[in-house]
Amino acid sequence: MITNAAFTLSNTVRQQVVNPSTMPQEVHLHNQNKSSNNYIYIGNSGVTLTNSIHLDPGESKVLHLMPGDSLHALSDPNGLTLGVLTIRQD
Fold it and tell me: If you write DSSP's letter for every residue of the chain in order, what string do you get?
């Protein structure tokens, strides 16, 4: 199953961008913003702007999530867009 979504993120409230699944998931992430200093931070449910990895403007990453894992995100500044493509075998 392939799903795609775009999330407008907050800089104060983390948002779940990939739900947990009973199957492994391949997740493609893309910071859809092109201006400098527009970062998207990704991690677990405790992600903050200071404790996680980030996506630079226009950057893409591929992650492999294990069963039960979810992914959360924040943006700096407020209102940035994250594109998410999730692939899993149901």
Answer: -EEEEEEEPPSSS-EEEE---SS-EEEEEEE---STT-EEEEESTT--SSSSEEEPTT-EEEEEEPTT--EEEEEESTT-EEEEEEEE--
Q: How far apart are CA 81 and CA 75, in angstroms?
A: 8
Q: What is the pLDDT of residue 23?
A: 95
Tell me the one-letter amino acid at 21: S
Fold of 2-88: Jelly Rolls (2.60.120)
Residues in CB range of 19: below 8 A, 6 or more apart: 70
Q: What is the pLDDT of residues 9-56, one digit of tens each?
A: 999 999 999 999 999 999 999 999 999 999 999 999 999 999 999 999
Length of the chain: 90
- Global pTM exceeds 0.90: yes
